[in-house]
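Posting for a labmate who doesn't have an account.
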Amino acid sequence: MSPKHIVFKKISKDKSVGVYMGKRDFVDRVDSVDPVDGVLLVDPEQLKGKKAYVTLSCTFRYGGDDMDVLGIAFRREIYISTRQIYPPLQDKEQGILTKVQDKLLRKLGVNAYPFFFEFPDNLPNSVGLQPAPKDVGKHCAVEFEVKAFCAESQDAKVRKRSSVRLMIRKVQYAPENLGAAPCVETTRDFLMSDKPLHMEASLQKQTYYHGEPISVRVKISNDSNKNVRNIIISVEQIANVVLYSNDSYMKAVATEDSGDSVDSGAKLDKVYTLLPLLGNNRERRGIALDGKLKHEDTNLASSSIVKEGVLKEVLGILVSYRIVVKLIVGGIMGSSEVGVELPFQLMHPNPDTVKESELEDEVVFEEFKRTNLKGMAEDEDEGNVSPGEH
């Protein structure tokens, strides 16, 4: 059997508007971002003379919606763009359609209309900080949403029954041009020791994929008169909340406490393997995660790649990773530490994109629903809001 193309749909409760989209993830390739495209299906009888609009928005949240706003809860709409889709402002035939849009328009009939948005190049990616197990409500996150609604005008109040909201994600995949494999070394002199301790740590490559083991090679030449009592290797995630407060969260998401020792005058050349996974960090507050949609699982947040010239302050949450190799060195006066850091990228591989010419004529519709991060409450049925009050 030939593969079927999944199309995600969501219909308003009063059936006045419905949104159909061929995907929920939109890729930021640094120099360009996938456009957001879909089809809006309207019921002229249910519209009763009203207009139909589609909005693309990006919102940054910090704290719960029900918390005191004096420095605790914060919400900012980073970007919002609204288009009138019905009545159409231009003839359908004048627009350039994607293959998915063309198939949907033919399948859905005369009351279906295409919509199209371009992402600005300075928007953040979909990232959220994991709440604690007992936390409820909204927490620190960057979220993207497509909203369709009918109203007398763009700024009029919108009935909840006459609108639909679809959470989408802006994601980054690993770049095609990978950088050099990280390697760092350090030499430490000690009091009352004629010779130093030398350590070198290296990775096999700069970019690792989610779920891929990371091999860290550690080489030690201990010519000092001290003994290395332990070697601890960890993967640290650094999440900088740059938009609101410049908070920085540093979390070790994988640790290898080896117990290895290197006596005075001895050498060591060993490879340690670490596997940073969300599954081992589910109960820890403040871990940065990639945005989550529907019932599917998410993962540790991918590394942020920032386009040159873009102000970092508008990018919400910036995520980076590093390997930290720490030696615990014993001595008469107590222990000391010798450490090095290896920055690297943790990302998803760029999937093989389906060429539009290969899309099958058969389209399968799937209801577009959202399940929040663990500990977050569903906010799908908020009260009536105007388009500017998401």
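Reply:
Got it, the structure tokens are right above this. The first helix runs from residue 44 to 47.
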